[in-house]
Amino acid sequence: MIKLPELLAPAGTLDAFKTAILYGADAIYAGLPGFSMRARAKITVDQVRTGIDLAHAAGRKVYLAFNLFAHERDFDNMPRVAEVIEYLRPDALIVADPGVMMWVRENFPDMPIHISTQANICSAESVKFWQNAGASLCVLAREVPHSEFKIIREKCPDTGLEIFIHGAMCMSYSGRCLLSNFITGRPANRGACAQLCRWKYDVILREHESGIEMPITEDNRGAYIMNSRDLCLMPRLREVLESRPDSLKIEGRNRSEYYVGSVVHAYRCAMDAYARDPDNFDVGPFMEMLNRLETRGYTTAFFDGPVGPDAHNYETARSVSDWHAAGVITATDSDKIIMELRNEIIAGDTIYFIVPGDDKDIPIKLSQIINADTGAIQPKMSAGQNNSVIIPRAWFGAADINKLVPCVFAYKHK
After folding, report:
1. Cβ count within 10 A of residue 195
2. In the prediction, which pLDDT does 253 show?
3. How far is CA 343 from the centre of its chain?
4. Mean pLDDT for the chain?
5. CA of 60: how far to CAs of 17, 26, 54, 220, 359, in Å?
6. Residue 389 has pLDDT above 70, yes or no
7. Strand pairing class (92-95; 160-167)
């Protein structure tokens, strides 16, 4: 069997922890408010502790993002941070700031340290610098093309190397954006980015002497001039795996559990298929899985070098997918499942359940909409207020309902 790299999934909630574990992530990374690049994370310290316990019970690892660029006031807060780290005991800390690195080495000398993509590591020399400082793994900047990654791999055989394979791209250099802070007061480097690169802009010419403002005519690309498509290396997964990275990272600690489960599932199935039969590996079926997600369109970004105009979507920041999440299973028994809705469903809709460890979905046609609270038959039902439906076991036919444990997702055509 071919040795595969670690598949690393994000978790911004406890449900995302559970979903990532269920769908096959080898490791999970999470952050805490104020300590990382996702300062607005909805997860609490105790929930992270629960997630770590669940992951360890399943034989998975958890890395704690501690990749803020620290000010003096942050170091004043380090005694409390030390208590949290001691309580959580993650498998590694992800850092970016040299001062934070020193603090971790002094206070947690046995803690493995991963260097964040925020450190903008683009060369073997930078990898060696962090290795000499005590890092066990470096997350390379998204701007590193694949040809250079292979050189870095050759020059740094004893250091863990991690690359991003899926998720949002930033118009600034690996997330170092000033626009959000400057215009809205929300610092991107503290996880509060307002994502101004996704906004639609109108360009206005102002004549200073008269005060007259005149709009400049847009071309046929529209005005989403900074809207990057989403990174997706599934089309180049064979090349990625053959270059021997140690870890493949999925972006998205602020994303939904549906996103986490779907992306982890697609890459898990693809990587396992490659390991079973690399000579006949075809990414097509797994790319179809990713095309069902809400996305701004996909790009391989810097994989082949500098990006071209096809890396951006100048028309809109809305999803280009024809699919959306239908719901998530919250309970099962021998007679039925309960599915909590994420979008409206209508009698006659066909929904598709994403089965962990199986690259074949289970399609179910909803001949009726059965309200889980009242048992009433309805023509349709909207999401919200924990609205849920009953799906009888009989509707699944020969499909194995035992695979549909809580946290399994379903999707449908829009």
Report:
1. 18
2. 81
3. 21
4. 87
5. 11, 5, 9, 48, 21
6. yes
7. unpaired
Concatenate the DSSP letters of all residues of 156-223 into one string.
Answer: -TTSEEEEEEEE---SSGGG---HHHHHHS--GGGT----GGGS----EEEETTTTEEEEPPP-TT-S
Q: Answer for the pair 364, 383: CB distance below 8 angstroms, yes or no.
A: no
CA-nearest of 287, 292, 350 to 325 is 292
Domain boundaries in the chain? 6-173+227-311, 323-413
CATH code, residues 323-413: 2.40.30.10
Work out the average pLDDT over 232-248: 97
Rounded CA separation 22/261 (Å):
8
pLDDT at 239: 98
- The CATH number that domain 6-173+227-311 falls under is 3.20.20.70
- The reported pLDDT for the residue numbered 219 is 55
**Res. 38: pLDDT tops 50:** no
Task: Report whether pLDDT(35) > 80.
Answer: no
Neighbours of 163 (CB within 10 A): 22
208-225: b or e for each residue (b if 16 or more CB lie within 10 Å)?
A: eeeeeeeeeeeeeeebbe
Per-residue pLDDT, averaged over 379-398, amounts to 93
Q: Average pLDDT of 183-193?
A: 64
pLDDT for 403 equals 83
Which residues, other chains included, contact 332 with Cβ-Cβ below 8 Å and sequence gap of 6+?
Answer: 338, 401, 404, 405, 406
Q: What is the distance between the alpha carbons of residues 385 and 388, in angstroms, rounded to a whole number?
A: 9
